[in-house]
């Protein structure tokens, strides 16, 4: 375990290992996303209540899952960075934030589009959509705070603290918004709040969720490598690497 | 297969615009994200290579030496002693 | 804290009971901040004036109809009080940062989390509590139904304490930045949402004649969580803002 943590301290080691791991995650993501898309769009049966508009679930739910998971990942990375001073963790947290915001946007957009055939309006203050909107603001706050500091190290540490504060608040926000929603709009139809889906419906959903996660891992590896090059540009091993590539 | 013809598949039982716009925007965003990440990496590598070429021409970072890059000190050194 | 250990083991320092030292330091911080704030009366009054002004804007912008106002009054009062509390946050650490006394606080042998908590307590005493006491008055002007005034003040008093604690994290993170004010609201407002939901919910429950103990209990629980965790986050943020 400690040997592994010590290896993680070395950006050079990470740069090498991530190059080997990356193609596997991209291939997995492509396979899963294509299968899930084909299955979800063409083969899964239409919902008896919502008809074919229900197929939006296959992008809405994975995006919402991923948006929340990325924030938690960022908080864990922030903790690792603050406790063990592992810079790779902070680089990963840096590149994860924009993807998390993008996934939140996908969840909001698909939710809004889904709302038209289901509720007859583009926006409802539905519990899930409202929490997603708040999550988007949390992401924007972290990105803005990191960018506001002149010193990269201060920005990293400030963003880590804010992410950790945010991750403690996410469940509190989620439960209070759920509570608020049930109080004000009792017995309305929530778009994804349904029990007991048949296998032909949830199997593609599971595939899409896994595909989104593989995409996230692949992209994080790729962009962390770029971030390593950016921050370690003056290090000896990067110079040697560039000499080799030339 | 939930649809019997291609047209039926595209129409999505009247919900076509919603389903296709949600999927389209998601797919587009994914492609832009991947494109941007690749571009970012390539540009970084290109910039670093350009710097290495410039430095090997000016000789400030001799290949294989462990020294940190030093600025060429030719004619701009002032001795006030 | 490593700084505490250093003082105890240092041969130069006279041996004091460290607990007494902490109490003295807390007392001194409380008194100092109280005195400084009371000297700058404008800063204490500004949030209150802002609160009253915003409440005046709503009947003008929406409608003077008392029936309509009575419906939206709980939410309006809570949102306006929240914004007023937010407005005062930027100055929480700003002047101490500028004149260097924040650095002295960091160097003090007492834990920074406790001293930060003392500063937040002063902030709540001079911002949150006055806002809570003033709210019933503005409630009358918004035709807030009778029977909910005490709950309004109580929920605001409890809730603004949480708001001060959470907001102080944001203020500590942005105190070193030149234009931290707008960023501060972006960082802090999303975290205020649970407090707003249960605070305004308590007033609404009181109007509808439902029990309010559940809401107030949750507000208290939020305050307890904030009291436990926020001081550490405030201390860590102050260290980042000053050392970096």
TrEMBL record, chain A:
It is a multi-pass membrane protein. One of its GO terms (cellular component) is plasma membrane. The keyword Cell membrane applies. It comes from the Bacteria. GO terms for biological process: cytochrome complex assembly. It holds the Pfam family Cytochrom_C_asm. The keyword GTP-binding does not apply. Keywords: Cell inner membrane, Cell membrane, Cytochrome c-type biogenesis, Membrane, Transmembrane, Transmembrane helix, Transport. It is found in: Cell inner membrane; Membrane. GO terms for molecular function: heme binding; heme transmembrane transporter activity. Residues 21-184 form the Cytochrome c assembly protein domain. Belongs to the CcmC/CycZ/HelC family. Required for the export of heme to the periplasm for the biogenesis of c-type cytochromes. This is Heme exporter protein C. It comes from Vreelandella nigrificans.
Automatic annotation (TrEMBL), chain B:
It is found in: Cell inner membrane. One of its GO terms (cellular component) is plasma membrane. It is a single-pass membrane protein. The keyword Transport applies. Its main location: membrane. Belongs to the CcmD/CycX/HelD family. NCBIfam families: cytochro_ccmD (TIGR03141). This is Heme exporter protein D. It comes from Vreelandella nigrificans.
TrEMBL record, chain C:
It comes from the Bacteria. One of its GO terms (molecular function) is heme transmembrane transporter activity. It is a multi-pass membrane protein. This is Heme exporter protein B. Required for the export of heme to the periplasm for the biogenesis of c-type cytochromes. Belongs to the CcmB/CycW/HelB family. The keyword Signal does not apply. It holds the Pfam family CcmB. Its main location: membrane. The gene is ccmB. One of its GO terms (cellular component) is plasma membrane. GO terms for biological process: cytochrome c biosynthetic process; cytochrome complex assembly. It is found in: Cell inner membrane. The chain crosses the membrane at residues 44-62, 68-89, 124-144, 150-175, 182-207, 213-238. Keywords: Cell inner membrane, Cell membrane, Cytochrome c-type biogenesis, Membrane, Transmembrane, Transmembrane helix, Transport.
